[in-house]
Design a protein that fits this description.
The protein is α/β, with parallel strands linked by helices. The chain has helices at residues 9-23, 35-38, 45-55, 85-95, 136-147, 155-162, 164-194, 198-202, 205-225; strands spanning 2-6, 31-33, 58-63, 99-105, 129-131.
């Protein structure tokens, strides 16, 4: 999947860069288009934008407090200028095949239809995702879920995501219990099949203790190393 990120440089440049890096870590996303990274010197900005939007499946429109563009007193905002590249990006996305997802950055609000040119007005009716610098990791995970159309995490998953220390302890305890059960069950099965206890099989109590300690340590550590990444909201 290819993702296009539209933003105004003096509005959400830093957020756009962090989000681009975050989305590139997703296995389901093959490419992220960010103009500062993708448009080469001497290349036509307008043609490159049109081509990139046409090829992407999802377009993220980052709307910050200054997204419409500052203007001189009495003049219209830059978003009304036909030559404004943000207007070009959003217009191409809205009129093309990408799924358009507005992202309201750092407390920005969605502009009203009267505050936008007619060709951008449809974005007002789209469900937007709020995101802040202070909660970037959580919000970026939610944006990634929306881009890939993943099911939203449940309350238990959200709790663990907000309390990673408790989650790590819980995973370790579960691993320890599984290791104990495996150790006891394995010893019982071995004894039932062979008629020998573990100390007899291993040549003494010492080796049994070493094996038991190793299994228990593995039970504590493995859940911390091999675990499914959880999403936060």
């Amino acid at each position: 999947m290819k993702v296009f990120i539209s933003y105004r440089r003096n509005d959400t440049r830093d957020f756009a860069g962090r989000l681009s890096d975050r989305l590139r870590q997703e296995l389901g996303i093959s490419d992220v288009f960010l103009d500062i990274d993708e448009i080469q010197a001497g290349e036509s900005f307008e043609q490159r934008i049109r081509s990139a939007v046409e090829k992407c499946a999802v377009a993220l429109v980052l709307i910050g407090p200054e997204w419409r563009g500052a203007s001189e007193a009495g003049a219209a905002a830059r978003i009304f200028d036909e030559r404004d590249f943000v207007r070009l990006e959003v217009r191409e996305a809205l009129s093309g095949k990408p799924k358009v997802i507005p992202v309201l950055v750092n407390g920005a609000r969605m502009p009203s239809r009267d505050e936008l040119p007619a060709d951008l007005a449809p974005i007002v009716s789209l469900n937007a995702i709020p995101a802040r610098h202070e909660s970037f990791r959580r919000d970026a995970d939610f944006i990634a879920d929306a881009v890939l159309a993943r099911k939203a995490p449940g309350p238990i998953s959200r709790y663990w995501s907000r309390h990673p220390g408790q989650h790590a302890i819980f995973r370790s305890l579960c691993g320890l219990l599984i290791a104990v059960a495996a150790l006891v069950g394995g010893a019982a099965i071995y004894n039932g099949v062979t008629g020998l206890s573990l100390d007899q099989a291993l040549g003494g109590v010492g080796p049994v203790i070493m094996v038991a300690v190793g299994v228990l340590i593995a039970g504590l550590i493995f859940p911390l190393i091999f675990r499914k990444r959880r999403r936060a909201t």
